[in-house]
Design goal:
Belongs to the short-chain dehydrogenases/reductases (SDR) family. Keywords: Oxidoreductase. InterPro entries: KR_dom, NAD(P)-bd_dom_sf, Sc_DH/Rdtase_CS, SDR_fam. GO terms for molecular function: oxidoreductase activity, acting on the CH-OH group of donors, NAD or NADP as acceptor. The protein has about 240 residues and is α/β, with parallel strands linked by helices. The protein has one domain: NAD(P)-binding Rossmann-like Domain (Rossmann fold). It contains 8 helices and 7 strands, in the order βαβαβαβαβαβαααβ. Strands 3-2-1-4-5-6-7 form a 7-stranded parallel sheet, sandwiched between helices. Helix 4 runs parallel beside helix 5. The longest helix has 28 residues. It starts with 7 loop residues before the first strand and ends in a 7-residue tail after the last strand.
């Protein structure tokens, strides 16, 4: 396909992990992919390798989101992947700043980007894929802040389906289970030993596993909508 004929996908949080793997999978499937995140140097390398575009984006900044939206005329697929967790503290010792970051990034970040591109996605009969987590379904001790954020994403996805049902767009939620990426390293603020212990002696999904599910959902006929996909390794039950 020519560059002008390709459908355009935007992947937030595209500089590593699930976001990077998704960008690569979509590009291999014929999409023109815009990878967006804060680490522009990393994005530029990925974009060069997949024949896409790199754009700097901080989903916690309305100015940053608006600037990105103003630079993109058409959009057929939005993958709201930017997110993450910080800390594993019990509620009685919860770090308010960590909770604020998780809510700003996971919930309000998804809201900002969706609002900014909704009209363009509608005009192009597009698709929104929101990356939540099994943490948005099943709470666990120490996870209250992340649970609250991802429960928020799950609720927002359901309301999008209700409120956007008369628009020619699709809405999908992906709920990954245990995926071995730098997720836990970020959660534990660089403590590699704690991060590695999360995945030790367990089956783990890869970022590419989740990217494959996103690629498949995005490639389905436009009259089909996958509301939710829950994906876990065989040894993880929620």
């Amino acid at each position: 396909m020519s560059e002008t004929a390709k459908k355009i996908a935007l992947v937030t949080g595209g500089s590593s992990g699930i976001g990077e793997a998704t960008a690569r999978a979509l590009a291999a499937d014929g999409w023109h992919v815009i990878v967006a995140a804060r680490r522009l140097d990393r994005l530029e390398k990925i974009a060069e390798e997949i024949g896409g575009e790199a754009r700097e984006l901080d989903v916690t900044s309305q100015e940053s989101v608006d600037k990105l939206a103003a630079s993109i005329d058409h959009l057929h697929l939005l993958v709201n992947n930017a997110g993450g967790a910080k800390g594993l503290d019990p509620i009685e010792k919860a770090n308010i700043a960590d909770w604020e970051w998780m809510y700003e990034t996971n919930v309000l970040g998804t809201l900002r980007v969706t609002q900014a591109f909704l009209d363009k996605l509608t005009a192009d009969e597009g698709h929104i894929i929101n990356i939540s987590s099994v943490a948005g379904i099943q709470p666990y001790a120490g996870g209250a802040g992340y649970n609250a954020a991802k429960f928020g994403v799950t609720a927002m996805n359901k309301v999008m389906r209700i409120e956007f049902v008369d628009r020619p767009i699709r809405i999908t939620e992906i709920n990954p289970g245990r995926v071995k990426t730098d997720f836990s390293l970020i959660r534990f603020k660089g403590d590699a030993a704690k991060a590695d212990a999360v995945y030790a002696d367990k089956l783990n999904l890869s970022a590419e596993d989740i990217a494959e599910s996103i690629r498949w959902v995005a490639g389905l006929p436009a009259h089909m909508n996958i509301d939710r996909m829950v994906i876990t390794p065989r040894d993880q039950v929620i």
